[in-house]
Amino acid sequence: MGDQGKQKLKILKATYGSEDCGIDVTEGLQLLVKNGRLSLTVSNHFFTDPCPGKVKVLDFAYELPGNELFYSQQVKENGLLIAHLTGGDRIGIFYTNNSTPPKYLERVLTQIDRAAGNVDIITCPWHPIEGNPFPELPWPYHVSQHLTMFLQILKLLLTAQELGSYEYVFFLEHDVLYPEGYFDIEPSSEDVLENTNYMGLCEEGFQPDHPDFKPLHQLAMRLPAAIEHFTSCVQRALAGTDPFLSLEPHGRTRAKRESREPAIHINHGHHFTSYHTTFSKKTIEKSHPYWGAAASWWE
Protein backbone atom coordinates (compact mmCIF):
# COMPACT_ATOMS: atom_id res chain seq x y z
CA MET A 1 0.00 0.00 0.00
CA GLY A 2 1.12 3.59 -0.47
CA ASP A 3 2.16 6.27 1.96
CA GLN A 4 -1.16 8.08 1.91
CA GLY A 5 -2.08 9.22 5.40
CA LYS A 6 1.30 8.32 6.83
CA GLN A 7 4.11 10.66 7.72
CA LYS A 8 7.19 10.71 5.49
CA LEU A 9 9.95 9.84 7.90
CA LYS A 10 13.26 11.29 6.69
CA ILE A 11 16.65 9.93 7.76
CA LEU A 12 19.03 12.82 8.41
CA LYS A 13 22.17 10.82 9.17
CA ALA A 14 22.93 7.16 9.87
CA THR A 15 26.16 5.25 10.55
CA TYR A 16 26.73 1.55 11.21
CA GLY A 17 29.84 0.20 12.91
CA SER A 18 31.93 0.10 16.09
CA GLU A 19 34.02 2.73 17.85
CA ASP A 20 36.99 2.44 15.49
CA CYS A 21 35.28 1.64 12.19
CA GLY A 22 31.99 2.37 10.50
CA ILE A 23 30.16 3.32 7.33
CA ASP A 24 27.54 5.85 6.32
CA VAL A 25 24.21 4.08 5.75
CA THR A 26 21.93 7.11 5.50
CA GLU A 27 20.70 6.31 2.02
CA GLY A 28 20.32 2.61 2.73
CA LEU A 29 18.33 3.22 5.90
CA GLN A 30 16.02 5.64 4.08
CA LEU A 31 15.25 2.89 1.56
CA LEU A 32 14.06 0.70 4.42
CA VAL A 33 11.32 3.18 5.36
CA LYS A 34 8.12 1.48 4.24
CA ASN A 35 4.68 3.08 4.30
CA GLY A 36 6.07 5.93 6.37
CA ARG A 37 7.31 3.49 9.03
CA LEU A 38 10.78 2.24 9.94
CA SER A 39 11.08 -0.98 11.92
CA LEU A 40 13.61 -3.79 11.65
CA THR A 41 16.06 -5.96 13.52
CA VAL A 42 19.50 -4.37 13.03
CA SER A 43 21.87 -6.83 11.36
CA ASN A 44 24.40 -7.33 8.58
CA HIS A 45 21.48 -8.53 6.48
CA PHE A 46 20.60 -4.89 5.84
CA PHE A 47 24.04 -3.26 5.92
CA THR A 48 27.54 -4.21 4.80
CA ASP A 49 29.62 -5.41 7.75
CA PRO A 50 32.30 -2.70 8.19
CA CYS A 51 34.14 -4.48 11.02
CA PRO A 52 33.72 -8.28 11.09
CA GLY A 53 33.94 -9.90 14.49
CA LYS A 54 32.89 -6.76 16.37
CA VAL A 55 29.52 -5.79 17.76
CA LYS A 56 28.13 -2.96 15.65
CA VAL A 57 25.77 -0.12 16.51
CA LEU A 58 23.37 1.69 14.21
CA ASP A 59 23.39 5.38 15.13
CA PHE A 60 20.83 7.50 13.30
CA ALA A 61 18.79 10.68 13.41
CA TYR A 62 15.50 11.40 11.66
CA GLU A 63 12.76 13.97 11.38
CA LEU A 64 9.07 14.12 10.55
CA PRO A 65 7.50 16.79 8.33
CA GLY A 66 5.73 19.50 10.29
CA ASN A 67 7.61 18.62 13.45
CA GLU A 68 10.30 21.04 14.60
CA LEU A 69 12.03 18.32 16.63
CA PHE A 70 14.39 15.69 15.33
CA TYR A 71 14.91 12.28 16.92
CA SER A 72 18.03 10.17 17.39
CA GLN A 73 18.48 6.53 18.33
CA GLN A 74 21.26 4.02 18.86
CA VAL A 75 20.49 0.35 18.35
CA LYS A 76 22.98 -2.47 18.85
CA GLU A 77 23.46 -5.21 16.28
CA ASN A 78 20.61 -7.77 16.55
CA GLY A 79 18.56 -5.20 18.48
CA LEU A 80 15.04 -4.13 17.61
CA LEU A 81 14.66 -0.76 15.90
CA ILE A 82 11.36 1.09 15.83
CA ALA A 83 11.49 4.72 14.74
CA HIS A 84 8.59 6.26 16.61
CA LEU A 85 6.34 8.17 14.25
CA THR A 86 4.58 10.59 16.55
CA GLY A 87 5.72 9.82 20.06
CA GLY A 88 2.25 8.30 20.36
CA ASP A 89 0.93 6.39 23.34
CA ARG A 90 -0.35 3.26 21.54
CA ILE A 91 1.32 0.04 20.42
CA GLY A 92 -0.05 -3.20 18.98
CA ILE A 93 1.41 -6.60 19.82
CA PHE A 94 0.88 -9.50 17.39
CA TYR A 95 1.54 -13.07 18.52
CA THR A 96 1.09 -16.35 16.66
CA ASN A 97 2.13 -19.98 16.70
CA ASN A 98 1.96 -19.93 12.87
CA SER A 99 -0.96 -22.37 12.93
CA THR A 100 -3.08 -20.03 10.79
CA PRO A 101 -2.69 -20.84 7.06
CA PRO A 102 -0.02 -18.59 5.47
CA LYS A 103 -2.55 -16.92 3.14
CA TYR A 104 -4.47 -15.68 6.19
CA LEU A 105 -1.34 -14.62 8.08
CA GLU A 106 -0.40 -12.48 5.09
CA ARG A 107 -3.87 -10.97 4.84
CA VAL A 108 -4.12 -10.30 8.56
CA LEU A 109 -0.73 -8.54 8.68
CA THR A 110 -1.51 -6.54 5.54
CA GLN A 111 -4.78 -5.40 7.08
CA ILE A 112 -3.06 -4.49 10.37
CA ASP A 113 -0.55 -2.44 8.37
CA ARG A 114 -3.43 -0.66 6.63
CA ALA A 115 -5.23 0.00 9.90
CA ALA A 116 -2.24 0.92 12.07
CA GLY A 117 -1.50 4.36 10.62
CA ASN A 118 1.08 5.86 12.97
CA VAL A 119 0.64 3.21 15.67
CA ASP A 120 3.73 1.09 16.31
CA ILE A 121 3.38 -2.69 15.89
CA ILE A 122 5.71 -5.46 17.08
CA THR A 123 5.27 -9.18 16.41
CA CYS A 124 6.35 -12.47 17.94
CA PRO A 125 5.71 -15.52 15.71
CA TRP A 126 6.95 -19.03 16.42
CA HIS A 127 8.59 -19.01 12.99
CA PRO A 128 9.57 -16.06 10.72
CA ILE A 129 6.75 -14.84 8.48
CA GLU A 130 7.74 -14.05 4.92
CA GLY A 131 6.84 -10.47 4.01
CA ASN A 132 6.01 -9.44 7.59
CA PRO A 133 6.01 -5.60 7.50
CA PHE A 134 6.71 -5.39 11.24
CA PRO A 135 9.72 -6.29 13.39
CA GLU A 136 9.75 -9.86 14.69
CA LEU A 137 10.93 -10.97 18.13
CA PRO A 138 12.36 -14.50 18.01
CA TRP A 139 10.49 -17.19 19.93
CA PRO A 140 12.23 -20.57 20.53
CA TYR A 141 9.73 -22.33 22.83
CA HIS A 142 7.26 -24.21 20.64
CA VAL A 143 4.89 -26.04 22.97
CA SER A 144 1.14 -25.55 22.49
CA GLN A 145 -0.13 -24.58 25.93
CA HIS A 146 -1.41 -21.50 27.72
CA LEU A 147 1.92 -20.95 29.49
CA THR A 148 3.60 -20.50 26.10
CA MET A 149 1.08 -17.84 25.09
CA PHE A 150 1.43 -16.04 28.42
CA LEU A 151 5.21 -15.93 28.05
CA GLN A 152 5.03 -14.92 24.39
CA ILE A 153 2.68 -12.04 25.15
CA LEU A 154 4.69 -10.99 28.21
CA LYS A 155 7.85 -10.81 26.09
CA LEU A 156 6.06 -8.44 23.70
CA LEU A 157 4.72 -6.33 26.57
CA LEU A 158 8.13 -5.98 28.23
CA THR A 159 9.69 -5.10 24.86
CA ALA A 160 7.03 -2.41 24.39
CA GLN A 161 7.88 -1.06 27.82
CA GLU A 162 11.56 -0.81 26.82
CA LEU A 163 10.88 0.76 23.43
CA GLY A 164 8.92 3.83 24.39
CA SER A 165 6.46 5.64 26.62
CA TYR A 166 3.36 3.73 25.59
CA GLU A 167 0.17 3.99 27.60
CA TYR A 168 -2.10 1.57 25.71
CA VAL A 169 -1.43 -1.83 24.17
CA PHE A 170 -3.69 -3.62 21.65
CA PHE A 171 -3.73 -7.42 21.52
CA LEU A 172 -3.64 -8.55 17.87
CA GLU A 173 -4.28 -12.17 16.95
CA HIS A 174 -3.46 -14.14 13.83
CA ASP A 175 -7.04 -14.97 12.88
CA VAL A 176 -8.58 -11.49 13.13
CA LEU A 177 -8.94 -8.79 10.46
CA TYR A 178 -8.75 -5.32 12.00
CA PRO A 179 -10.48 -2.41 10.22
CA GLU A 180 -9.11 1.07 9.61
CA GLY A 181 -9.83 3.23 12.64
CA TYR A 182 -9.56 0.28 15.01
CA PHE A 183 -6.70 1.93 16.93
CA ASP A 184 -8.56 5.23 17.39
CA ILE A 185 -9.50 5.39 21.06
CA GLU A 186 -10.58 8.03 23.52
CA PRO A 187 -8.51 8.48 26.70
CA SER A 188 -9.88 6.42 29.57
CA SER A 189 -9.04 5.89 33.22
CA GLU A 190 -10.06 2.23 32.99
CA ASP A 191 -7.53 -0.62 32.80
CA VAL A 192 -9.33 -2.31 29.89
CA LEU A 193 -10.95 -0.93 26.74
CA GLU A 194 -13.29 -3.48 25.19
CA ASN A 195 -14.33 -3.26 21.54
CA THR A 196 -17.83 -4.62 21.09
CA ASN A 197 -18.00 -4.28 17.30
CA TYR A 198 -16.76 -7.56 15.81
CA MET A 199 -18.13 -10.41 13.70
CA GLY A 200 -17.16 -13.86 12.50
CA LEU A 201 -16.32 -15.15 9.05
CA CYS A 202 -16.88 -18.73 7.94
CA GLU A 203 -17.10 -20.42 4.56
CA GLU A 204 -20.78 -19.46 4.27
CA GLY A 205 -20.19 -15.74 4.94
CA PHE A 206 -20.07 -13.10 7.68
CA GLN A 207 -21.67 -13.94 11.01
CA PRO A 208 -22.92 -10.79 12.75
CA ASP A 209 -24.65 -12.46 15.71
CA HIS A 210 -22.62 -13.45 18.76
CA PRO A 211 -23.14 -13.65 22.54
CA ASP A 212 -21.61 -11.17 24.94
CA PHE A 213 -18.09 -12.61 24.80
CA LYS A 214 -15.02 -10.45 25.47
CA PRO A 215 -12.03 -12.07 23.71
CA LEU A 216 -8.49 -10.78 24.16
CA HIS A 217 -8.26 -9.97 20.45
CA GLN A 218 -10.80 -7.16 20.94
CA LEU A 219 -9.18 -5.61 24.01
CA ALA A 220 -6.79 -2.75 24.60
CA MET A 221 -5.21 -2.31 28.03
CA ARG A 222 -3.10 0.20 29.85
CA LEU A 223 0.42 -1.14 29.45
CA PRO A 224 1.31 -1.33 33.18
CA ALA A 225 -1.96 -3.17 33.89
CA ALA A 226 -1.30 -5.59 31.00
CA ILE A 227 2.21 -6.39 32.28
CA GLU A 228 0.84 -6.94 35.77
CA HIS A 229 -1.93 -9.22 34.47
CA PHE A 230 0.27 -11.46 32.32
CA THR A 231 3.02 -11.64 34.95
CA SER A 232 0.35 -12.96 37.29
CA CYS A 233 -0.85 -15.40 34.61
CA VAL A 234 2.67 -16.81 34.21
CA GLN A 235 3.04 -17.23 37.96
CA ARG A 236 -0.30 -19.03 38.27
CA ALA A 237 0.40 -21.20 35.21
CA LEU A 238 3.75 -22.28 36.66
CA ALA A 239 2.15 -23.02 40.01
CA GLY A 240 -0.55 -25.12 38.34
CA THR A 241 -3.15 -23.90 40.81
CA ASP A 242 -5.68 -22.67 38.25
CA PRO A 243 -6.65 -25.26 35.60
CA PHE A 244 -9.09 -22.81 33.94
CA LEU A 245 -6.66 -19.92 33.63
CA SER A 246 -7.63 -17.69 30.69
CA LEU A 247 -5.86 -15.00 28.70
CA GLU A 248 -8.57 -12.43 29.27
CA PRO A 249 -8.17 -10.08 32.26
CA HIS A 250 -10.95 -10.38 34.82
CA GLY A 251 -11.68 -8.21 37.81
CA ARG A 252 -10.20 -5.06 36.28
CA THR A 253 -11.97 -1.80 35.53
CA ARG A 254 -13.40 -1.72 32.00
CA ALA A 255 -14.82 0.69 29.48
CA LYS A 256 -16.65 -0.32 26.32
CA ARG A 257 -15.99 1.18 22.91
CA GLU A 258 -17.16 0.47 19.40
CA SER A 259 -14.84 0.66 16.40
CA ARG A 260 -16.34 2.42 13.38
CA GLU A 261 -16.25 -0.82 11.39
CA PRO A 262 -16.36 -4.37 12.76
CA ALA A 263 -13.29 -6.50 13.28
CA ILE A 264 -13.59 -9.96 11.72
CA HIS A 265 -12.66 -13.22 13.47
CA ILE A 266 -11.80 -15.83 10.82
CA ASN A 267 -12.95 -19.40 11.35
CA HIS A 268 -9.94 -21.13 9.80
CA GLY A 269 -9.88 -24.29 11.87
CA HIS A 270 -11.72 -27.57 12.10
CA HIS A 271 -14.29 -26.14 14.45
CA PHE A 272 -16.43 -23.11 14.08
CA THR A 273 -14.03 -20.78 15.90
CA SER A 274 -11.29 -21.34 18.44
CA TYR A 275 -13.94 -20.47 21.03
CA HIS A 276 -16.40 -22.99 19.54
CA THR A 277 -19.60 -21.04 20.28
CA THR A 278 -18.57 -17.40 20.05
CA PHE A 279 -20.51 -16.69 16.87
CA SER A 280 -23.89 -17.87 15.65
CA LYS A 281 -24.60 -19.39 12.24
CA LYS A 282 -28.23 -18.37 12.47
CA THR A 283 -27.55 -15.22 10.48
CA ILE A 284 -25.15 -15.22 7.53
CA GLU A 285 -24.34 -12.23 5.33
CA LYS A 286 -22.62 -12.72 1.97
CA SER A 287 -21.22 -9.19 1.93
CA HIS A 288 -20.55 -6.21 4.16
CA PRO A 289 -20.48 -2.47 3.28
CA TYR A 290 -16.90 -2.11 4.55
CA TRP A 291 -15.37 -5.56 4.04
CA GLY A 292 -17.04 -6.35 0.72
CA ALA A 293 -17.80 -9.90 -0.42
CA ALA A 294 -17.20 -12.53 2.23
CA ALA A 295 -15.94 -14.93 -0.43
CA SER A 296 -13.11 -12.54 -1.33
CA TRP A 297 -11.70 -12.93 2.19
CA TRP A 298 -12.42 -16.60 2.65
CA GLU A 299 -11.39 -18.06 -0.73
Characterization of this structure:
- The chain has a six-stranded mixed β-sheet. A four-stranded antiparallel β-sheet has the order 2-1-4-5.
- Strand 12 (198-202) and strand 13 (205-207) form a beta hairpin.
- Residues 1-5 have low confidence and may be disordered.
- It folds into two domains: 10-83, no CATH class; 90-298, Spore Coat Polysaccharide Biosynthesis Protein SpsA, Chain A (Alpha-Beta Complex).
- It has helices at residues 26-31, 102-116, 146-163, 223-239, 294-298, and strands at residues 10-18, 21-24, 38-41, 57-63, 70-76, 80-83, 90-96, 120-125, 168-173, 176-177, 192-195, 198-202, 205-207, 219-222, 254-257, 263-266, 287-288, 292-293.
- Helix 3 (146-163) packs antiparallel against helix 4.
- The two termini are 21 Å apart.
- The chain is 20% helix and 28% strand.
- The protein is built from five helices and 18 strands.
- It is α+β, with helices and mostly antiparallel strands and 299 residues long.
Q: Count the DSSP helices.
A: 5
Query: H/E element string?
Result: EEHEEEEEHEHEEEEEEHEEEEH
- What's the CATH architecture name of the largest domain? Alpha-Beta Complex
Quick check: average pLDDT?
Answer: 87
Strand order of the largest sheet: 8-7-9-14-11-15
Beta-sheet strand percentage?
25-35%
Roughly how much helix do the residues carry, as a percent range? 10-25%
Lay out the secondary structure.
Blueprint: E1 10-18, E2 21-24, H1 26-31, E3 38-41, E4 57-63, E5 70-76, E6 80-83, E7 90-96, H2 102-116, E8 120-125, H3 146-163, E9 168-173, E10 176-177, E11 192-195, E12 198-202, E13 205-207, E14 219-222, H4 223-239, E15 254-257, E16 263-266, E17 287-288, E18 292-293, H5 294-298
Parallel strand pairs: 7-8, 7-9, 11-15, 12-16
Antiparallel strand pairs: 1-2, 1-4, 3-6, 4-5, 9-14, 10-16, 11-14, 12-13, 17-18
